[in-house]
Each structure stands twice: as C-alpha cells, then as structure tokens.
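Worked example

This section walks through a single chain of length 92. The input is the sequence exactly as stored; nothing has been trimmed or padded.
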Amino acid sequence: MLAHRAVVRYACRTFWERWCAVDCWTCEKTALGACRFCGRGACREHAQQRPYIVGLYRGRANDTLRAVVVEDALHCGVCHPRGEPVPLPDLD
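Given that input, the structure is written out below as tokens.
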C-alpha cells in the first residue's frame, strides 16, 4: 500500500509541475507569477508592480466611496489597464 501511495504522489506531482508551469509572455523563461490584470506570465526580469483595486466599499449611504488597494500587484508590462471605467449599458 505504501509503494502505491508513493507512485501516485510522484505521478500527481510531476503532472501538476508540467501542467502548472507558466512561461513569461515576453522571453518565454519560467514565470514567477501571473499578471493581476491580464493573466500573462511574467519572469523576474519583466515583472513590474502596479496598484490594484481589490474592492470598493461605502460605510453608509452618504459616505464617500473608498477602495481597498494592493500597492504592489504583479504587472506583466505588456497589457495596458484602462485608467477610466468602461460603460456597460447592455448589462443594466
């Protein structure tokens, strides 16, 4: 039984290592993470940091809208997040 568990554990580990490996979008080296804005992989050389809004909240109906922001979210440097919101009239 122990030998079977070891084989299964090894097979799962190698499968996930191959399946989960992400390459850098720019240079195709192994990526350290995925861009928070578009999902592209970024290696240490090409990774940048950019603020990312995690959520918005309003304490009371009359309060000013506030944001919870991560200051150093991973950015690939390739995508260009828009500075202004995009209207979506079809979803109203």
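What to look for: The helical segments are 2-20.
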